[in-house]
Write a structure and sequence with these properties.
With about 180 residues, the protein is α+β, with helices and mostly antiparallel strands. It has two domains: about 45 residues, no CATH class; about 110 residues, 2-Layer Sandwich (Beta-Lactamase), CATH 3.30.450. It is built from seven helices and five strands, in the order αααββαααβββα. Strands 2-1-5-4-3 form a five-stranded antiparallel β-sheet, sandwiched between helices. It is globular. The protein starts with 17 loop residues before the first helix and ends with a helix.
């Protein structure tokens, strides 16, 4: 079949003509995604101004507050990380793979991290705690970590999944002096 463009008009096919089908498809595309009004022009009252800006800002804020996830082997090396974890740590995803997770842990929190890590591998119980992490640029952020044990199967090593998110704003609100 040859595409002749949207304005191509073919003779009647059955009881429908090609132009009627095209008009029906065009009408579906002319519905405002915010207010649902059907109009030839985009609904400028809804789509311009603060509604679109606030919707876009809400999506950006949601993406910024989404948790990142890393899978850490028992030897403390990152064996997998998602894009959000990489963004939170200020690097690319592939740059995290094979590196010790503790490179991202602020020195004063290393002991705390290992206490929770060892508890996960010995008891297999979930752990939730807060520590400070470094970004690649060495800036520091408060992070809430939720860690779960993953049993290795088929000769694979036991691992833990770390889900974390930036908790700096909430921490500052709770303790404005720090």
């Amino acid at each position: 079949m040859v595409w002749h463009g949207p304005n191509y008009k073919k003779g009647p096919v059955g009881h429908h003509s090609n132009s009627k089908i095209m008009n029906a498809n065009n009408n579906k595309q002319q519905i405002c995604p915010i207010c649902g009004q059907s109009s030839i022009q985009v609904c400028l009252e809804c789509c311009s101004g603060s509604n679109v800006h606030s919707t876009t800002q809400n999506l950006i804020d949601a993406a910024k507050s989404a948790p990142g996830t890393c899978i850490i082997a028992s030897n403390n090396l990152i064996i997998d990380a998602d894009i959000t974890a990489a963004r939170l740590l200020g690097t690319e995803r592939m740059a995290l793979i094979g590196k010790p997770f503790t490179l991202s842990v602020v020195g004063e929190n290393i002991i705390d991290f290992f206490v929770y890590r060892n508890a996960i591998f010995s008891t297999h119980d979930e752990q939730r705690f807060e520590i400070k992490l470094y970004r690649k640029d060495r800036s520091i952020f408060s992070a809430q970590l939720h860690c779960t044990f993953i049993k290795g199967q088929g000769g694979l090593t036991d691992c833990m999944q770390i889900t974390f998110q930036d908790y700096s704003r909430q921490r500052k609100a709770l303790n404005p002096r720090n």
